[in-house]
Amino acid sequence: MQQRRDFNSQGGPSQSGQGGPGAGGPPAGGPERRGGRGRDFRSRRKVCAFCVDHVREIDYKDVSRLRRYLSDRGKIEPRRKTGTCAKHQRRLSVALKNARHMALMPYTAAHIRGA
What we know:
Layout: H1 49-52, H2 63-66, H3 79-82, H4 86-101, H5 110-113
């Protein structure tokens, strides 16, 4: 028969009955904290603005709406940043590319920098 050993978080055998480090309680500095800030913050899930507004088609001529989805460098913002769903992100990228082709939106931020 094999004997089972318990190991603490440092990798050594646990010392049962003693209140040293690795004893399983809170650290000696005070109550246990998760993030170090003392409050439990969970970010809200972003919702697709096109789904909320029940938009059927994303119009490339609607520059004021499309401008929100371009970065200051002229790049198309990713889904994780804007919160758009996959279906609308695909249609949004096509509309942005069409607006760029028609010279309604910039390809780069060179016009902002003055180059």
